[in-house]
Amino acid sequence: MAVFNHTAFDGHEQVVFCHDPETGLKAIVAIHNTNCGPAVGGCRMWNYASDDEALTDVLRLSRGMTYKNAMAGLPFGGGKSVIIGDAKTMKSEALFRAFGRFLNSLGGRYVTAEDVGTSTKDIAHIQMETDFVAGIEGLSGDPSPFTALGTYLGIKAAVKHKLGRDDLEGLKVAVQGLGSVGYYLCEHLHRAGAKLYVTDINEAALKKAEAELGATIVGLDEIYDQDVDVYAPCALGATVNDNTIGRIKAGIIAGCANNQLAEARHDQLLRDQGVLYAPDYVINAGGIINVSFEKDYDKAAATAKVEEIYATLLDIFQRADAQQKPTGIIADQMAREIIARGGK
Ligand code: NAD
Q1: Are 114 and 135 contacting, i.e. CB atoms less than 8 angstroms apart?
Q2: The domain containing residue 275 runs over which residues?
Q3: How far, in Å, from the CA of 268 to the mean position of ligand 1?
Q4: What is the pLDDT of residues 240-251, one digit of tens each?
Q5: pLDDT digits over 70-129, tens only?
Q6: 88 vs 11, 116, 145, 185, 293, CA distance in Å?
Q7: pLDDT at 236
């Protein structure tokens, strides 16, 4: 398993492999870039099929955090961590505390928060050993509602740009994943009058969306074939790929999942097909923006900053049209300029 020659390696500053035999902890911390400040990004727990799959994920996710934090105007660099294991069966206080001790050894170069497979309870266990945690219950708390708000406003920006509409009445949206963020997003969309087409591996979440939000349940693979205006990926990454691009009928792809495009070239492919893509790390920055307000937490100020996602995305869409370039390339260019000047 190569690191420096890995396809997902992007000049990362530091990659740390952590193993604690007593608790069974196997984790990787990737610090991508600290030009704008200490690396901040969540801790994902996932039953990876191989160590290489975990490494690929953490390398890609940490790079995404550098760009996300820069574009959101936060004084943070980019980092991420993954714990290898089944979140349903392997979690324990001891395991997360062991992880916290590893974070201490990094001296604050990386600050963690919750992500897929981890919760505020797990963060509290990590915090028993280290101060390098964010998204703490009772302070900024669960980031998901803020990620959902930013994603909802991002969908509105895309609809404004593509369809020239300010309202979402009757708009058809296919939502893939009704988890912490996806369900809140569906609630926003439902209140705005959108029609929902939803899928998930979790039957209970589907039934709830059907009963509470009038959502239409579709199969896991059928989500790509829906005749909808917006496809909102809100589960895992790489769902926009060679197999799905030809099937997705939506003119807009805008959701909260990280790393939505399987490969960078899919950005151009979407543009060629007239699909407006809201760059993932821009539209899903609401949670980290909220976390950045953790000290002296001010919900109104955090919400106002999350609302800036709407204008940032409109700016990206307009620049992409003016320069005839894919939206992801434009966002990357803008982020790199911010990173090069250290966030100032
Ligand atoms: P979550 O684990 O709460 O929800 C994910 C949902 O997707 C679950 O309901 C799960 O059952 C479902 N799912 C899993 N596999 C699926 C499949 N093949 N098809 C359909 N549904 C499937 O996670 P979350 O916190 O809601 O995050 C969702 C996505 O948004 C992730 O990619 C995450 O990295 C990203 N994200 C989350 C936040 C946040 O604040 N939580 C912030 C930024 C980005």
Answers
A1: yes
A2: 144-287+300-332
A3: 25
A4: 999 999 999 999
A5: 999 999 999 999 999 999 999 999 999 999 999 999 999 999 998 889 988 999 999 999
A6: 34, 12, 23, 25, 31
A7: 83
Distance CA 235, CA 238 (A): 10
State both tokens at 197.
Answer: 């087409």
The answer, yes or no, to whether any atom of ligand 1 lies below 6 A from the CB of 260, is: no
70 alpha-carbon distance from chain centroid: 14
Q: Do residues 32 and 160 both lie within one domain?
A: no
Q: Please determine, for residue 344, whether its predicted confidence score (pLDDT) is greater than 80.
A: no
pTM > 0.85: yes or no? yes
Catalytic pick among 26, 80, 172, 305 = 80
Structure tokens at 83: 């714990």
Residue 314 shares a structural domain with residue 184: yes
In a domain, 58, yes or no: yes
Number of domains observed in the structure of the chain? 2
